[in-house]
Amino acid sequence: MTLNRLDLVSKLYQPAMLQKVTDVAHGSTSTGPVVVDLDPTTFCDLACPECISGKLLNQGRFTPERLGSLADEIIAMGVQAVILIGGGEPLAHRGTRSVLKTLGEAGIAVGVVTNGTLIKQNLDELSTYASWVRVSVDAATRETFGIFRPDRKGGSVFDKVIENMRALAESKRGALGYSFLVMVREDESPSAVSNHHEVLQAAELAKEIGCDYFEVKAMFDDDHHIVGVPDEVLESVESQIAQARKLEDDGFSIIDSSTMLSLRTRSGPVQPKDYDRCRIAELRTLVTPSGVYICPYHRGNPKAQLGDAVTESLPEIWQNADRGLIDPSVDCRFHCARHDSNLELEAIKVGRGRPALDTDEDPFI
């Protein structure tokens, strides 16, 4: 069986993690997470107006020494996968190259979410050690990129990003993804500014570059609620996705995320949850320079902070933290990508789980 990268529920049944998953489903606390989201830095070289982490940017970074010791602690805890993400731009930290190598040589799967501007400087490590690299592009032209993903001087570095992606496509061992966030910016002009008209063109460019997949996502507001779009925008995006699927072959796929499903079904900004504890918090965590948090949805939320990885070791934080401090029924009414995984853990608890899979393919639960 080949696991879909977004099939987070099926991934729970992989042999290497199933015992931990089962224990957590029945109420146990885990000795360590399966996946760690790691923000090396809060600094970013772009100035995207719609950045969901905009209020948290440029407020510090781990020292290279602490970032290196964090990698060692992650290995010692038996973590299976790490996602270098942010907050800021993970490749902007000069210690990220070393972390990629350390984790990769320890057999830990590494994913990287990046804006693509610094791929060339990290090309050898990304090519050798990254299980996947997802580049947030959100455009198909220099002009649209400059509107939604400008650099600090207001310019467009689209050509640089695409050139960097081409270079990685030629040398990579893992997968390369082109991410497209559908955005509509309401302003004082007669019509809204949007990037939605470039979905098909971006998908064509992604395949031409040598990407393995093209992903379409819906936009979140600052509180992680999905932002709706006008009917004509959704219809346009849907039509372009349908046309883009004609590009699919054994080496290239089109992915529309669960957030697109929410747009499609008009689910609205609220995702109700009838459970009061996030069991997935026993299997994943977020480590940033400002603190260790329950998950990326609560990045920077003092109520969801488990500890301080600048002054405490990650194993100590994990051992001492109360990972039940967030009540999903109250604190997580936004769309959560792991809601279905939490429901599956409830199913496992009452004996309605699925059979175990035969092989381990993808630890990024």
UniProtKB/TrEMBL annotation:
Q: Where is the Radical SAM core domain?
A: 30-253
Q: Which PROSITE patterns match?
A: RADICAL_SAM
Alphabetic keyword roster: Iron, Iron-sulfur, Metal-binding, S-adenosyl-L-methionine
Q: Which GO terms describe its molecular function?
A: catalytic activity; iron-sulfur cluster binding; metal ion binding
Against Pfam families, the record matches this protein to: Radical_SAM
Q: Does the keyword S-adenosyl-L-methionine apply?
A: yes
Query: Record's SUPFAM superfamilies?
Result: Radical SAM enzymes
Q: Which PANTHER family match?
A: PQQA PEPTIDE CYCLASE, RADICAL SAM DOMAIN PROTEIN
The protein depicted here goes by the name MoaA/NifB/PqqE/SkfB family radical SAM enzyme
